[in-house]
Amino acid sequence: MSAAPGKGKTQVRRQNEARLASLYQEYYDRIARYARVHIGDRTEAEDLAGEVFLKALDSLDSYQERGVPMQAWLFRIAHNLVVDHLRKKAKLKTVPIETIPLESNGDPMKLAERNIELERVNRAMIQLTREQREVLGLRFLGGLTSREVGHILRKNDSAVREMQRAAIEKLRKLLTAEG
Amino acid sequence: MTMTEEFRQILDRCIDRINAGEKPEACLADYPQYADQLRPLLQAMSQTKEAYAFTPSASAKAASRQRFTAAWQKLEEKRQAKQPWFGRAFARPATWATVAAVLVVLIVTFVSIRPVLSPVLPITPTPSPDGNFVFLISDEVNAIGDFSSVTVTISKIGLQQKDSGKWLEFKPEITEVDLTQVQGDAVQEVWQGDIPEGQYKQVFIYVDDVRGVLKATGQTVEVKLPSRKLHISQPFVVTTDTVTSFTYDLTVVARGNQQYLLKPQADQSGADQNPRETKDKGNSDNRTKPTPPISHPANLPKKEN
To answer: Which chain B residue shows the shortest CA-CA distance from A39?
Structure first.
């Protein structure tokens, strides 16, 4: 929401805070899934999702809609936090498979199959460029549109669509090769 | 649009539709010409979504939500602390309700005690050329001969009713009177209008300024006032079918060493004075020139329209 002239700054701020709180339920999950693509660890991904909302609350004064919905802005914060997180852990290029925790509940057979599939997809994902992983993470796990992804990556729609196509093509090839 | 760009757009649309909950088959059916190219890509997408899909733990989410809510509350408290006390007080609906209740009580109280207060709430009569009351200013000769002009500026006139004690207040239509022009029997009419009939007991005039110019030197000297509000107690009667003319007599007295004082002359004032001359208050050029004396008894029959 933009700060309309004549509206009190505090009033706009309060409205944005309420809006941010209303996004919590749905977007916490999406951000956690998006983060997991990059950092692998489920618990760390959940922590990062919580951190995104706290960071957003702190820097809400800098948020102005201008065509970027608040949810896309949240993913931009998430993206920055992921980059920081990986930089700290010197994991910018790869996500070790062993950091992906195994699911521990449900049918053991299905669980095993799921974990094998997760490892397979993850092996393919880490062979993509960081930007390609970013586009697929935001599109597939974050559920953002190409335009919203463009706002986060500061690229136009057409460039995002091309990156997306190339990324999926490469991912498909890698998955096929993985068997 | 090139085939490639068209394909990218279709792929993009299909991804949006799958994100919105549709099956890949629905999208493939809508674009049969691209189905073979789209199918493996959408399949890779589905595999990726499925592999990474997980439901964050409820406890982690709840704890995180709690931290967010606490931070939000802290922010609000900080904001409240920064506001001035009246801002905080009036931000609460309860304060507004209290203020509204107090206002209602005050209004009700005022309405109910208004009759008791009415003697101190002045009535403001309106001027009218045919009114039943005329207010005149005159000068009782004392030291006025020392002056070529003594201009008195009157801002307000008040009359007090005898029985109810109510005050009537009105602004004179002519606010400046040169006392050198209204000496002796000469008068200056400064207001005419309708006022309630009855007995009146007191009159006051508010004098804003007095400027005297000495004949001998041409100098302007200060004419002092005992008070800005010059008051006299002089009973008179007003009726609706007569015109009552009240003459308020002022006089300038010398206090020695070129000091002068303006004071009311109660014994020469009143509605029962002898007839005095009046001037046309509508003609500003002649306002300070005395017109020929006219018969002006205290109570005249009211003018016919």
So the answer is: B52
